[in-house]
Amino acid sequence: MNKYWSETIKGITPYVPGEQPRAGRLVKLNTNENPYPPSPEVLEAMKAAVTDKLRLYPDPNCSRLREAASRLYGIPAEQIFAGNGSDEILAFCFKAFFDPGDTILFPDITYNFYEVYADLFGVSYRTVPLTENFEVSASEFSSDNDGIILANPNAPTGKTLSLEDLETLIQSNRQAVVIIDEAYIDFGGESSIGLIPKYDNLLVIRTFSKSRSLAGLRIGLAMGNRSLIEALIRVRDCINCFTVDWIAQAGAIASLEDTGTFSHYIGRITATRGRMTEYLRDADFHVIDSSTNFLMMSHPFLRAKALYEALREKNIFVRYFPKPRIDNYLRVTIGTDEEMDIFYDAILDIVKNTH
Amino acid sequence: MNKYWSETIKGITPYVPGEQPRAGRLVKLNTNENPYPPSPEVLEAMKAAVTDKLRLYPDPNCSRLREAASRLYGIPAEQIFAGNGSDEILAFCFKAFFDPGDTILFPDITYNFYEVYADLFGVSYRTVPLTENFEVSASEFSSDNDGIILANPNAPTGKTLSLEDLETLIQSNRQAVVIIDEAYIDFGGESSIGLIPKYDNLLVIRTFSKSRSLAGLRIGLAMGNRSLIEALIRVRDCINCFTVDWIAQAGAIASLEDTGTFSHYIGRITATRGRMTEYLRDADFHVIDSSTNFLMMSHPFLRAKALYEALREKNIFVRYFPKPRIDNYLRVTIGTDEEMDIFYDAILDIVKNTH
Questions:
Q1: Which reaction(s) are listed as its catalytic activity (chains A, B) (predicted)?
Q2: Architecture of A45-258 per CATH?
């Protein structure tokens, strides 16, 4: 019963986000949320923004938020764009920089949403295989293309590309926009923000959903040459001029300003990640070195799908992707130490009982 | 310097929203915001939603919000879609229901954003002229088309179409989706929500930015046949699965539940509208009967553009559209009684001093 659907929508496979189960007691390690709360200053700033002013449209350009980002990242405010989550900004990129008939490149194993955007907006894409060790081969991206999207660190592998390799890639693709999705960069790897003044074809995307504990607030940023930012503004003003509400703007500003709490929780997550990587390897799991807030792991003989289902029965949610090359891996978000201990005990228990 | 822009973005003219001036003392009657604050219960609900839970992604389907809307409007929750403002939902409609090459219809004088969406998504459109008195002629919409968008009440004219005429229009266009944009319906006119069970081609759009005093929060709803709602969900899940943040969901629920404050302020606005219409007509202005929270008005010999500029010099912001047929009208949002008195005195002063 879809006689009124557009042809695009009839044919498309939308993105499927990780489950947001509503049950009470569960360990949720499936959508790379931060196990620690937003900083108290962020919550205070949001409460303070709940005023009668909400009757007015928000600042469409998020001026104060962009100024706060400018101070933190050392990029002029005019070179920063704020949106309703980085997913929205990525979608806007497809209308801003690519036309139907264009061919863009991204790795064969990466954030699944890139191919959905391409399908929605009729942009062709070619996937570039990661190496056997799930590394991005920068040199493979220097062929003919109309754009490149790279998640760095990559998801769901958790691996990073060096800044040197990234620069070579950007340099050898001056004909096209290179979008670096730095959703996980605060957990490891080198940011390409420092390359923005040198390359007018570089756009760096950030999200507040992972390292800043604000998935529920919906904030993302794009940084790059002013002309690229202008294109994003044009797309936004053809869809919804006011994408970021007053309260989200206030919370995002406070988040950028509270560097102390931010560093503290990043430190805890990376410490837990190190400990858990070690434990799991000691228990014979293959765990990829992670620069993110998740681990990509597999077991020498138990199938990932079986592990995923067995964990789910114990109310432990992790992510499993039934996709070529990674269908024997689990992607496990780094939770609190307590959550990770529950996960660890559970998975060891499953392994033991399957022998 | 737009070598990286897509062809679509190079050629397009984005929507230009009314100014959001940041100056201190001014009378802002230019973007149809509500002069009264959101209900205290709405503010309380939002503050209560500012919690550690913000580290988690919001409910993508806004289930509780849709249930609250279901209770108020008597439409099943599965037939309701929530988005980040009605503009976003309208944009989604273009991907959901129309393909490039399709031709849709809307009036020649209506919300300017409709043609921007069409241009962005490559959908053709034909405008149907309003009558000399700025009425929608429903019968003119029964020609061959792939979709219809009608604002009811219409903006910026402020006029409504009767439910009977609307039903005839929907009935004679069963081949296509008919989108009724009811942004201003709470201020007057008959809602077409009651027709939803009868017509699977009807989609009704609502916003919280006008009657609900929540322009700064960004909430819109779409209501219609389940298949139409499913198409909108598919588009959303190809762009950004989590469009409405936790705090906005909480505020929107409280707004739908507090019918008392809502009716009280609607009553005040319509009373001010009546009084001001009378005063302005007594002062020789031509004022269209309004079913909205704005007045469309012209003066017998002073040009609207000159009035607009003279008001602006007095820090009174109204809207002027340099477009055929309406370029001698001002669109003036109904503010508080105090604001309207300032506006009234100022415009009379301008008229007097121009004699």
A1: L-histidinol phosphate + 2-oxoglutarate = 3-(imidazol-4-yl)-2-oxopropyl phosphate + L-glutamate
A2: 3-Layer(aba) Sandwich (3.40)
